[in-house]
Amino acid sequence: MTKRIPFISGNWKMHNTIAESKALAKAIADCKENKNNADIMIAPSYTSLAAVAEAVKGSKVAVAAQDVHFEEKGAFTSAVAPSQIKDAGASHVIIGHSERRSLFGDTDAILNKKVAAALKHGLTVVFCVGETLAEREADKTLGVIESQLENGLKGFTAEQLSSMVVAYEPVWAIGTGKTATPEQAQEVHASTRKYLSSKYGEDFASKVRIVYGGSVKTDNVDAIMAQPDVDGALVGGQSLVAEQFIRIINFN
């Protein structure tokens, strides 16, 4: 089996001033302990992107934008283009987070255009998928995930998606304190990998990193990361506290 490097990422959402973001980023970047040799990514607000990118320069910490628009420029008030987030120092971008889907109306078709724009500018895509509580209770989880992958990634080759990270985040477990059990996470991750294998080939599927996002904390990360198809975490609240995020990076 291909040995996949763990990918531990923090989504700071709408938190922190520029000064607070710089201090948090520096604390994470200055930590010398990374016993799993994990790739680390943090996603501050747009306003802090450039400052955070400067704060972590020369470290192993990558910087991501939390979203991106699919147009390069134009009359799109409040939107941010891929070239702008890249210019601010981001190398990664989160696309399809459940909050973007549910609160801002991002459809699979819109996300597909965002992925195209990000890839065109050489940004590494962290593509999010996940089901609602109603969908899980109706036993539709695996079908929902496959549909989101099918439609969101439509038209791209395995080569184009070679650097992509997939983040499984059950909507019912985001910001609720609820977490999928390690077994539930493993089931979805394994199914996702199987789908990607059927679509892009076994070699691609064995290498792509599928991370779990959904109330990942210091007290559950070890059990989650012990699952064979869980390659990392997309962390919310506890990525805002350096000590907690560093403990998650150094999962056992």
From TrEMBL:
It is found in: Cytoplasm. It comes from Elusimicrobium minutum (strain Pei191). Substrate binds at N11, W12, K13, G175, S215, G236, G237. One of its GO terms (molecular function) is triose-phosphate isomerase activity. This is Triosephosphate isomerase. The gene is tpiA. Pathway: Carbohydrate biosynthesis; gluconeogenesis; Carbohydrate degradation; glycolysis; D-glyceraldehyde 3-phosphate from glycerone phosphate: step 1/1. InterPro entries: Aldolase_TIM, TIM_sf, TrioseP_Isoase_bac/euk, Triosephosphate_isomerase, Triosephosphate_isomerase_AS. The active site is at H97 (electrophile), E169 (proton acceptor). GO terms for cellular component: cytosol. Its EC number is 5.3.1.1. Transmembrane segments: none annotated. It catalyses: D-glyceraldehyde 3-phosphate = dihydroxyacetone phosphate. It comes from the Bacteria. Involved in the gluconeogenesis. Catalyzes stereospecifically the conversion of dihydroxyacetone phosphate (DHAP) to D-glyceraldehyde-3-phosphate (G3P). Homodimer.
